[in-house]
Design brief:
The structure holds 2 protein chains of 2 kinds. Chain A is mostly helical. Chain A has 2 domains: about 15-55 and about 350-365, no CATH class; about 55-330, ABC transporter involved in vitamin B12 uptake, BtuC, CATH 1.10.3470. Chain A has helices spanning about 10-15, 15-50, 55-70, 70-95, 105-120, 125-150, 155-175, 210-225, 230-240, 240-245, 250-275, 290-300, 305-325, 330-350. Chain A is globular, with a radius of gyration of 23 Å. Chain B has 2 domains: about 30-140, Response regulator (Rossmann fold, 3-Layer(aba) Sandwich), CATH 3.40.50; about 145-265 and about 295-365, Response regulator (Rossmann fold), CATH 3.40.50.2300. Chain B contains 10 helices and 17 strands. By secondary structure, chain B is α/β, with parallel strands linked by helices. Chain B has helices at about 10-25, 50-60, 80-90, 105-110, 145-155, 170-185, 205-215, 230-240, 265-280, 310-320; strands at about 35-40, 65-70, 95-100, 120-125, 135-140, 160-165, 195-200, 220-225, 245-250, 260-265, 285-290, 295-300, 325-330, 335, 340, 345-350, 365. In chain B, the strands form 4 sheets. In chain B, strands 12-10-9-8-6-7-17 form a 7-stranded mixed sheet, with helices on both faces. A 6-stranded parallel sheet of chain B has the order 2-1-3-4-5-11, with helices on both faces. The chains are: A mainly alpha, B alpha/beta. The interface of A and B includes residues 60 and 69 of A.
């Protein structure tokens, strides 16, 4: 029998307490990051105003350049595409309590592996490129997970150092044994044949990395929220000892999730090589791996939330140019804004469970 | 590329200009003349590559009827493609200078065919007739001659007979500068050697400082560089008591007493000429190169430390280069592994295409390309 709530609003009485309690929890997960975002934007407005610039003019430009026209969306989504996959390299291991910040290395090696696989050729070349990219990234970040589990090496430090190693290896190979002799002043691997170049999603003007990124986020969400591996990973992330006592394969989970994250980062390299650069060269190290950290934290390591977070950051970065040109502000302005938002979101972590309006009890569940 | 069939270019630009005026608190709408966009890969006050281009942009800005828009720190990724398109869509730019070498392939080549009405001018000399779009042009200068002149002064000023070079990557353009610097110094004293250290990156301050310190530790007392922003190299070398020769832009302000001279780009002259051609409705040639005589490069004023003997030879060699057809590489000349590069009696003049695939360090340079 449904218990009625005399002091609750009318719609609450119509829904019933169980549904309402669930709704309140979901609302909390949306309202707090949104509130933090607005607080970050407001704080940045004060910063701009203190420097004598109009926040209204600034946000008008950001809107226009990031979201206001068809071209703006194309610009925003182009920048968001690599960030989706790069963020998964942080978010997936994070569900097991690992802070992996070396996705940049997996991106570099993934791109290089794809370029090498393209050289093998044959009808299976596209699949081979994807597999090679995922394998390279997966092995690299998987090794970080293994070092953590088997040897107790701090994964944050090791992933960062491994990224430096990866980039050094990349540069050595691209400027040495794998260099195309024709790439005189911009050392690169041999250019991909036209047949292996990836085009744009029709009507969107962005390469296929965007679609794959969105799909990867959705699949990762399903993996974490709807499968027993995801469930086991969440338990291990919450309390390793408890998970081990339950007989969960913690080692396999740590290595597996790290490797999957690395494989997604490897795909960033694949798309950069096949859809943007047409060869592997130093331009691959564009900082996507590091932006991915920001996005994963903005999304609180929820793969579905990575999509709006990446679009937001993509839009901010897309607007950086117009802000520079029109307001004569330095290019770092957008980075400062991202910093404000990032800090606001991190601070808002402390609010979960403390806002009474979202408490399930308030809506009828004891 | 999303097309907007209902939105004509004129209406779009009008709306953009209106929105700008509104958004920027009543800034005047864009002038009706030519809008020129400049894109830099690093900060435009880097005392180096980007500053040299920004100085060129500043000269264009001073021209009547021209609006200049600039964007710095634009990566050689899809970022630069979108920056070019944004300059076209939001600012109506019809002449764009994406200045970094790495912007050409694939980025300019991807954007240019979509915007045939816009002219793209790229620094680096890569344009090939019949292969690349007709609305793309490339230009470059024989700055190796500037490093040769740096070397002449360095040869006079070095007491240890060891000079040093901090280089980014062992690519032809960089190797040409290293070799020219040493050969300039050897034209003064054939016993001089030049140690080169490659940092592997175009811009990495820590490695550049380490390399500079290592060179000075090994006895080098005149240092030059080819990295994007030579500021750290110049400051570190001067602090360690070594003389410095500039590169890309004028770095004399960093250490006036230790600065001897420098090989600078003279983009102001090149860019104003190109902008004037565009303003007059003319066609900019697709492939332009020039040296000291053409005003593509220039030398920094000689510093106070430069001796009279050094000054005299510097002026004499400069006059020689200004005549055109100067050759820094004259036979017989070997590379530093003992292979012959130029036979006795032969010479590679500054315009020789063979220099553009240089993959060696000449005899007297201490270092390796790989």
């Amino acid at each position: 029998m449904t218990q009625t709530l005399p002091d609750a609003p009318l719609f609450a009485q119509a829904l019933g307490p169980a549904a309402l309690a669930g709704l309140a929890r979901r609302a909390e997960a949306v309202a707090i990051p949104l509130g933090a975002l607005l607080a970050g934007l407001a704080a940045f407005s004060l910063f701009l105003a203190a420097l004598g610039h109009s926040p209204a003019a600034f946000y008008a430009l950001v809107w226009r350049a990031g979201f206001g026209t068809g071209f703006s969306w194309e610009n925003t989504l182009s920048r968001a595409a690599p960030l989706l996959l790069a963020a998964l390299c942080v978010a997936l291991p994070a569900r097991l309590g690992l802070v992996v910040i070396g996705g940049e290395g997996a991106i570099a090696l993934g791109g290089l592996a794809a370029a090498v696989a393209a050289g093998i050729g044959g009808p299976l070349a596209p699949a081979l490129m994807a597999l090679a990219a995922m394998a390279a990234g997966g092995v690299w970040i998987g090794a970080v997970g293994w070092l953590r589990h088997a040897r107790g090496v701090n994964e944050t430090i090791s992933s960062l150092l491994m990224a430096y190693v990866a980039i050094a290896l990349f540069n050595h190979l691209v400027e040495g044994p794998l260099r195309d002799p024709a790439s005189l002043n911009k050392p690169s691997t041999a250019p991909l044949p036209d047949a292996l170049r990836m085009g744009e999603i029709p009507g969107v003007g962005v390469h296929w990395g965007l679609a794959v990124g969105v799909a990867a986020c959705a699949l990762s969400w399903l993996l974490i929220e709807r499968t027993r591996w995801g469930f086991a990973a969440r338990i291990a992330g919450g309390n390793v000892r408890a998970a081990q006592l339950q007989g969960l394969p913690v080692g396999a989970l740590v290595v597996g999730f790290a490797a999957l994250g690395g494989a997604f980062a490897g795909l960033v390299g694949l798309f950069e090589v096949a859809a943007v650069h047409g060869a592997a060269n130093a331009s691959l190290m564009a900082g996507y791996g590091y932006s991915g950290i920001l996005i994963a934290f903005l999304a609180r390591h929820n793969p579905l939330a990575i999509i709006p977070a990446a679009v937001l950051v993509g839009g901010l970065e897309a607007s950086g140019g117009l802000v520079q040109r029109r307001m004569d502000l330095p290019d770092a302005t957008v980075l400062v804004l991202e910093g404000f938002v990032f800090v606001a979101i991190l601070l808002s972590e402390t609010l979960y469970g403390r806002c009474r309006v979202f408490a399930p009890e308030r809506w009828g569940r004891a | 590329m999303i097309r907007h069939p209902s939105l004509s270019r004129r209406r779009f630009l009008g709306a953009a200009a209106g929105a700008t005026a509104l958004a920027a608190g009543g800034l005047p709408a864009r002038a009706s003349g030519l809008t020129v966009g400049f894109i830099y890969v690093g900060p435009k006050d880097d005392f180096g590559y980007n500053q040299a281009h920004a100085e060129g942009a500043a000269a264009v800005k001073a021209m009547a009827g021209v609006t200049v828009i600039e964007e710095e720190n634009v990566a050689e990724t899809v970022d630069v493609q979108k920056t070019m398109e944004s300059m076209i869509a939001f600012d109506g730019a019809s002449l764009i200078f994406p200045t970094s070498f790495g912007y050409f392939d694939p980025h300019i080549l991807a954007v240019a065919p979509k915007h045939p009405e816009v002219r793209f001018q790229h620094a680096g000399g890569l344009w090939t007739d019949g292969v690349h779009p007709a609305n793309v042009g490339s230009y470059f200068g024989y700055i190796g001659m500037g490093q040769y002149l740096n070397g002449v002064v360095a040869g006079h000023m070095s007491r240890t007979k060891k000079i040093g070079f901090v280089a980014a990557k062992p690519i032809p353009q960089v190797l040409m500068n290293v070799n020219s610097f040493l050969l300039g110094a050897r034209s003064v004293d054939p016993a001089i050697t030049c140690q080169v250290i490659f940092t592997g990156e175009w811009s990495m301050a820590v490695k550049e400082a380490e390399a500079t310190n290592a060179l000075v530790d090994q006895g080098a007392d005149v240092i030059t560089a080819h990295v994007d922003g030579p500021k750290v190299v110049m400051e570190t070398a001067a602090k360690r008591g070594a003389y410095i020769c500039g590169y890309h832009a004028n770095q004399s302000a960093l250490a006036p007493d230790m600065y001897l001279t420098g090989a600078e780009w003279n983009w102001a002259q090149v860019y104003t000429a190109m902008a004037q051609t565009a303003l007059d409705g003319g066609t900019i040639p697709n492939f332009v190169r020039g040296g000291l005589a053409d005003g593509f490069i220039k030398m920094s004023a000689l510093g106070p430390a430069v001796t009279d003997a050094a000054r005299a030879q510097f002026e004499a060699v400069k006059a020689e280069i200004l005549k055109g057809g100067f050759a820094a590489l004259r036979g017989p000349l070997n590379d530093n592994r003992g292979n012959q590069i130029v036979a006795a009696g032969a010479a590679l003049v500054e315009t020789d295409l063979a220099l553009e695939s240089m993959d060696y360090l000449v005899e007297g340079v201490v270092g390796a390309t790989s």
